[in-house]
Amino acid sequence: MTGHVIVTGGGSGVGAEIAHAVARSGAAVTIMGRREGPLREQGLPFQTCDVTDAEAVGAAFAAARDAQGPITGVIANAGAAHSAPFHKLAAQDMADMMAVNVTGVFNVWQAALPDMKEAGKGRLIAIASTAGLKGYPYVAGYVAAKHGVVGLTRALGLELARTGITVNAICPGFIDTPLLARSVDNIVQSTGKTEDEARKILASASPQNRFVETGEVAAAAMYLLSDAAAAVNGHALSLSGGEV
Ligand code: NAP
């Protein structure tokens, strides 16, 4: 692949897997996240930034563009999940869920748009979740935010349909990453179940009774980034073994 792809949250989990797949394809990649340590560990070009801060995102994109050329693809992958029963969900927790999962996607897509409009082509991709397509208990803020990402994808896909730019969301079920490890810890603390029992409960959400592999998410992202996916637009692609 040619071009220059930005992957947010590229220092760990799904984002790191996608970033390495992009690099292996021959395209330039820049990973972004808040902590320098995990980004540096990937051995890929990086810029630190908080995706909730539009000014910081603008500066990071400008630096990435100066270093490796115009942006041709964005994987808006940075995200976080807060779990609590709804009556204990603080207003700040709700605002934090919207900030990282929705405004974060908005900020990075908007920062990439001028390069793509100028080129007459581009790929805007978000890593949403099955939580963008159906509900789950005890994660109302996360579910609301991921539904927001799918809505943003559908609206912007239509708005940009005649520009050569496509906009899509990938919606995986549970994946074994640091984010999942935090959810498992949370279940262990709040229910007294063992770690193994908690992991089995989460895996059983999939009809295939397993977690989605980070490599499966990366393969979907590589397809959506490719020229072959030019007709796929405004789409939310479920990777969930048939859960949704
Ligand atoms: P992860 O390893 O925790 O990755 C999240 C990444 O996002 C981290 O590298 C983190 O780095 C970065 N990040 C978080 N907040 C940020 C912010 N404000 N600004 C910039 N970067 C930020 O978890 P993951 O599972 O790979 O998650 C990746 C995406 O997949 C998320 O959007 C998640 O919702 C989605 N997803 C995960 C699952 C699952 O079961 N794991 C399922 C479906 C969808 P810093 O902390 O250094 O900023």
UniProtKB/TrEMBL annotation:
Residue stretches making up the Ketoreductase domain: 3-173
Gene3D superfamilies in the cross-refs: NAD(P)-binding Rossmann-like Domain
Highest rank taxon of the organism: Bacteria
Record family assignment: Belongs to the short-chain dehydrogenases/reductases (SDR) family.
Any one biological process term the GO annotation gives: monocarboxylic acid metabolic process
CDD domains according to UniProt: SDR_c
Name recorded for this polypeptide: 3-hydroxyacyl-CoA dehydrogenase
